Every structure is written in C-alpha cells, then in structure tokens.
Amino acid sequence: MILKYFSDYLKENNKTATFEELTLWVREKLEKPAKCHEDKIIQAEIYLAQNENGDFCLIGKNKTGRNLVKSLYHYILSCRNITTARLRHTEKQKN
Questions:
Q1: Which residues contact 17 (CB under 8 A, 6 or more apart)?
Q2: pTM > 0.90
C-alpha cells in the first residue's frame, strides 16, 4: 500500500526512484497534516532523523515501521537494478 503510494508519487511527478527522493517524500509526509490513510501510517511508523552533517535517516518507530523502511529501501534498490539492466540490454543490442 505505501510502496504503491510512493510509486504513484514518482510517476505523477516524473521522478526517478532514488534514496534522496524517498527522503524528501517522507519528509513532506511527516511535516504536513495527514490527507489520507497512507499519510497517517507513515506518520505513525517512521521517524526522520538528521545527523550533524545534515544527512537524513529514516528510522522505524517499531517493528512494522522498520519493515516499512526496509521495504522502501528495497524498492529503491530494485528500481535502480531494473534501470541498470535495461541500460545494459540496450547497449548489448546496439553492438
């Protein structure tokens, strides 16, 4: 449900799935009042921390929050792997 919500956000805004984009999206969801059920889940399950270097870190507030963060992380990795595989396939077909 949350992965689809993030995926829809990426498609609607024509953005690439990156860790930076995920952090910005979660930050936006945490700072604004919840508009839908998915926003409420994000606000209840995820904490956004910032270290002294200004880098942000997503932290699950409990076990389900940690699973959500882990799933979002793996979603970004899978999107990046698909993009890399498509590029390699295109390069092979050119040769």
A1: 10, 75, 76, 79, 80
A2: no
pLDDT at residue 51, as a whole number:
87
Structurally, the chain folds into a number of domains equal to 1
Show the domain range for 30.
2-94
Rounded CA gap, 90 and 71, in Å?
29
Q: What is the DSSP letter of 50?
A: E
Give the whole-angstrom CA distance, residue 51 versus residue 41: 24
**Which residues touch 29 (CB under 8 Å, ≥6 apart)?**
39, 42, 43
The rounded percent of the chain whose pLDDT value lies above 90 is: 77
Mind listing the pLDDT tens digit for each residue in 47-80? 999 889 988 899 999 999 999 999 999 999 999 9
Angle between helices 2-12 and 19-31 (to 10 degrees): 110
The H-or-E segment that residue 90 falls in is helix 63-94
